[in-house]
Amino acid sequence: MPELPEVETIAQGLREAVGRRIVGAEVRWARTIAAPDPTVFVQRLVGRRLLGVGRRGKWLVIRLEGGDHLLIHLGMSGRLVLEPEGVGEERYARVLLMLDDGRRVRFSDPRKFGRAVLTVDPEEVLEGLGPEPLGEAFTPERLREMLAGRRARLKPLLLNQRFLAGLGNIYTDEALWRARVHPLRRSDTLSGEEVLRLHRAIREVLAEAIDRRGTTLEDRGYVGADGRPGTFNRELAVYGRVGRPCPRCGTPIERIVVGGRGTHLCPRCQQA
DNA sequence: AAAGCACCCTGTACGC
DNA sequence: TGCGTACAGGGTGCTT
Questions:
Q1: What is the spatial distance between Cα A246 and Cα A137, in angstroms, rounded to a whole number?
Q2: Nucleotides of B under 7 A from a protein CB
Q3: Which of A58, A163, A198, A245 could lock A250 by a disulfide, CB 3.0 to 4.6 Å apart?
Q4: pLDDT (tens digit, 9 = 90+) per residue, A90-103?
Q5: pTM for this structure?
């Protein structure tokens, strides 16, 4: 699933197309377009030049000439690929943007959970998001305050985009493992030392994953905008590694369900 | 505020 | 071989 590092990787790849003009657009699955109406969506895109590509949490923010912003959330199975001219059709293509150099931006999404929004005011979509985990404002002290003001279990809290923007199931489990805290720990019970470890773990795991261009699991197919897979899966300590030894202590990794989400942990390193 | 659940989707795994 | 069913998962919305 595309989480912060995957979306960041895609944003970087998409910057390749900055300066190009959209000469055509096609919506093949109307519900992928959250707003405006798909017909209006296409009308407003065509003729616009791409001015910049950014990211906020798991949202991709594409700034367009004329003041519009194309926001894209990849959901679970979304891919955004900048493809050269002459590439064949793809079964799961939901939205296509034709560029003036012949290339196309293809938004593919087998499970149809992804969404695109065209808006002049991105804040309208993004304002509810929590802080950027890699941003300057996300300090250990800030995290301490955030955690102290809540009393939820860590795992669902870290997955909550209104609390912190960008973590998904993979990096939440990896960060908790690195910090050596249990996913069921209540947020307001962490010691100062544990908060520091968690803060550091979140930032390090995300930064390393960006360096590796994200995580591509064998059974799922995330790829960057250039079509290349990420390699952070080689660094995963717990996610999808049930029964395999903890890289730190050798204890077999366990899987529990928290808030309906599969959750991976080392029962020895991460004591409840 | 926290937590549980249904829902949106479909590929895959699994039992028969 | 093929069918039915459960499940995964990000996010939203509703209910308790």
A1: 32
A2: 1-5, 8-13
A3: A245
A4: 889 999 999 999 99
A5: 0.94
